[in-house]
Description:
Blueprint: H1 3-6, E1 7-18, E2 21-32, E3 36-40, H2 47-55, E4 61-69, E5 72-73, H3 79-84, E6 87-89, E7 97-101, H4 102-116, H5 124-137, E8 148-149, H6 155-169, E9 173-177, H7 185-200, E10 204-208, H8 212-218, E11 222-227, E12 230-235, H9 237-246, E13 248-251, H10 254-257, E14 265-268, H11 279-283
Parallel strand pairs: 3-10, 3-11, 6-9, 9-10
Antiparallel strand pairs: 1-2, 1-4, 4-5, 7-8, 11-12, 13-14
Helix pairs in contact: 5-6, 6-7
Amino acid sequence: MSAVAQNLLQVHDLRVDVGERHVLKGVSLEVPAGALQVLMGANGSGKSTLGLTLAGHPRYQVAGGSARFAGQDLLALSPEARGRAGLFVSFQAPPEIPGVKNNLFIRTAINAVREARGEAPLDAFDFLDGARSAAASLGLPEAMLGRPVNDGFSGGERKRNELLQLAMLRPRLAVLDEVDSGMDVDGVRALVQLVQDLRAQGTAFIVVSHYLQLIESLQPDRVMRLDQGCIAETGGLDLASEIARTGFVREADAASAAGAGPAELRPVRSQPLRSDRPIRERLGADVSASTTLRLRPPRGVQSP
């Protein structure tokens, strides 16, 4: 099998504008099926822009480059078609959807994916069997399944609700944008376990995070540093550790703008990794030994 065939996602020289700003200026990356890659970068470097562009958000205009997902031209697909193809992108700040019940929202999404695969839809009873189990494992009260999406939810509850959608949809590729932010110790533990469980079933991940200890717990295949709209550096856990120690390296363009010659590189503590308490202390010494999420797909739902 060729390297091209093995890559679930291929992004080449992707350039994206938001209004008059050039945010992404030539991003290239490849994500094999089942891989886990971490994306790091200072505020404003374009991390959320990349995820929302892959999702098809209309505010983010592709100025050039390409993106292929599971052999398809991702940029030519509608946002709905991208979701049906198996792409999941979490919100950094999940919005509320008043009037739309959580269980109806998720079941509709699952059945849209099933329809795209030529499978029969799930009825309410089959869906609720899996949804109740997943919600319990993620620490969401069952009553929240019947409430409007994120309406009146706390910040941590909204992030757990994103995880519930992820657990039920079981996508081929999940882009998680700081999904750990704002969650308590149990929520972070559930996040780590869910990622491990889904990855074992073939789901690939791009995880945006500033927590070094979380990154260590996830054991990524690759760490990427996004700087000023480009992938500036790739590596392993050693790269994440170096960023934790020195901060992000940003180009000092003030000298160039003033005509004073080439810019110099200097380390700047811009958005340092948050590590007020080691995550291993908060999660326990062995994350893998924590209670396994009791996630089972509803009858008829296939893993990716």
